[in-house]
Design goal:
Layout lengths: L3 H4 L2 H12 L3 H8 L7 H13 L4 E5 L5 E3 L6 E2 L7 E4 L9 H4 L3 E3 L20 E4 L6 H9 L5 E6 L5 H11 L4 E5 L2 H5 L5 E7 L13 H5 L2 H21 E11 L8 H10 L2 E4 L11 E2 L5 E3 L9 E8 L23 H8 L6 E3 L4 E4 L5 H10 L3 E5 L1 E7 L2 E4 L1 H4 L10 E3 L2 H8 L11 E7 L2 E8 L4 E3 L23 E3 L1
Parallel strand pairs: 6-7, 6-9, 7-8, 9-10, 20-21
Antiparallel strand pairs: 1-4, 1-5, 2-24, 3-4, 8-17, 10-14, 11-14, 12-13, 13-14, 15-16, 16-18, 18-19, 21-22, 22-23
Helix pairs in contact: 2-3, 2-4, 3-4
């Protein structure tokens, strides 16, 4: 016997739902449609979840920071990223947690962590992976944390207003084999870069964020869907140009409609020699589903996540491509200061040390230096950051950069002082603090993880924390419940 809900007219239910929260009527009709959406039952359940189901809070640990759960009791894992991602019962004030500033974890929407399921299909041959729409950095940090250390990640962001937050989040991660670029996707493709994998988390109409970001409801329209799908097609065409034979293109959106998902997959399959990857069987407890076409979806009605869609294709046939550059040679980038002085001052292997004309020294693996050279000479994209900015010489003084303090693997010769929570927050607010430390450069840590540098002058210390990485809310107090209470430094 049919239920009362199914006996009621779809239009009547849609009108009722729209009256409750002004969801666009055409959106409600589309998600309930069999041809444009998920059918009446799934569509109505999705609308109900958008209206009434609270958004979950999820975090992902950075393995490279050497942190782990102290106890698994009452900790619920994100099923498709279960080795290092967890749900929180409530949302703490992350800004008040010094370990967030240290990069111990990233606050990431659970659905977008589905990217983790595709990592095993990336086979590094050229040694390059590109994240084309990288800000704010969730997928880039997931990729960088999971890929082999010798694989170079190029994180590109085309929106100028979002580049800085990408740089800050990747700085907190602290990995040296990352190049951050700013520019259009075609501009990056024109540099001739050849990648093992290209990730396109495409700018989209944002239907999957209706619950979390109410302003996206007022911005939504069929015209926006059409505009986004045209832009997405331009991006995937340029992405395909970067992909080596056998490489993988991973495409995702935080939207539901077919124009921005199924039609994009159809475009790739019809225009190029591509095969669909189906990397995992959705776990029965996760709620992820697929209609059998290789597109996987998370709906807030069936998963603890916002809306998310993802698929991947492998590039078949064609001619094998290689990055067209010669091996790095001495003199391409030179050190103006004696190598022995730099080695003594930084304690970093010399094959990681480079210096640019401004006097800034940065750490980048020698194997990745030719690709940086290629980007410098052939790409119209701006290089925002290459590797880890280590230090710069001011006269004879070596001034360490904040990114060196947060580095996951680079050593340093400076003394370290572990401080308490209140002092840590004072430091992160760039307020005066007093520590028992020798004069000179000192690295402050909190529970074993680095926070940043000070220059100890005796009875006072100068903070070397960049203003952009500081806490702006000077009245912020320690939060009574911190996610990092469940973590330990290994």
């Amino acid at each position: 016997m049919a239920s009362k809900k199914n006996n009621r007219s779809r239009d009547g239910i849609v009108n009722e739902m729209e009256q409750k929260q002004q969801l666009p009527e055409i959106f409600c009709s589309r998600v309930c449609s069999v041809t444009d959406g998920f059918g009446q039952d799934k569509g109505l359940a999705l609308i109900e979840a958008i209206l009434h189901k609270p958004s979950p809070v999820s975090v992902r640990l950075h393995r490279s920071k050497g942190v782990a759960l102290s106890s698994t009791e009452d900790i619920r894992r994100v099923p498709w990223c279960s080795d290092n991602a967890f749900y929180l019962e409530s949302r703490p004030v992350f800004t008040a947690d010094p370990w967030w500033h240290s990069g111990a974890y990233y606050v990431q929407e659970a659905g977008s962590m589905m990217l983790n399921q595709y990592i095993g299909h990336i086979k590094p041959v050229s040694g390059v992976v590109v994240d084309l729409c990288a800000a704010p950095g969730g997928k880039s940090s997931l990729l960088r944390d999971a890929l082999p250390a010798d694989t170079l990640l190029i994180s590109n962001e085309w929106d100028a207003s979002r580049v800085q937050v990408l740089k800050e989040n990747m700085t907190r991660l602290g990995h040296e084999n990352v190049i951050i670029t700013h520019g259009s996707v075609p501009a990056l493709a024109d540099s001739g870069i050849v990648a093992d994998a290209v990730v396109v988390d495409a700018p989209c109409s944002g239907e999957g964020m209706f619950r979390k970001e109410p302003e996206s409801v007022s911005q939504w329209s069929l015209q926006l869907i059409s505009h986004c799908s045209e832009l997405q097609r331009e991006i995937v065409d340029a992405a395909w140009k970067m992909l080596r034979e056998g490489g993988v293109l991973i495409y995702s959106t935080c939207t539901y409609n077919r124009e921005e998902n199924e039609q994009m997959l159809s475009h790739l399959l019809s225009e190029y020699d591509a095969e669909v990857l189906e990397p995992f069987e959705p776990h029965s407890a996760s709620g992820i589903f697929t209609s059998g076409d290789g597109i996987y979806r998370a709906l807030p009605s069936e998963t603890d996540s916002e809306g998310f869609s993802i698929f991947a294709v492998r590039k078949c046939g064609g001619t094998e491509q290689n990055n067209s550059f010669s091996k790095a040679k001495k003199g391409v980038v030179t050190l103006r200061h004696p190598k022995v002085e730099v080695e003594k001052a930084t304690s970093i292997p010399l094959d990681l040390i480079w210096e640019i004309p401004s006097g800034e020294i940065f750490a980048l693996p020698l194997t990745s230096a030719p690709i940086l050279q290629q980007l410098h000479s052939r790409s119209k994209s701006r290089i925002v950051q290459a590797g880890i900015p280590v230090a710069e010489f001011k006269g004879k003084d070596l001034i360490p950069q904040h990114s060196w303090a947060l580095s996951s693997r680079l050593s340093h010769p400076y003394p370290m002082v572990d401080i308490g929570e209140e002092q840590a927050l004072d430091y992160l607010k760039r307020e005066n603090i007093s520590v028992d430390a020798p004069k000179g450069i000192v690295l402050l840590t909190y529970k074993g993880l680095p926070l940043g540098w000070i220059k100890q002058l005796g009875n006072r210390a100068n903070s070397l924390l960049p203003k952009g990485m500081a806490i702006f809310n000077k009245s912020l107090q320690p939060d009574a419940w911190k996610w990092s209470n469940f973590l330990v430094k290994l």
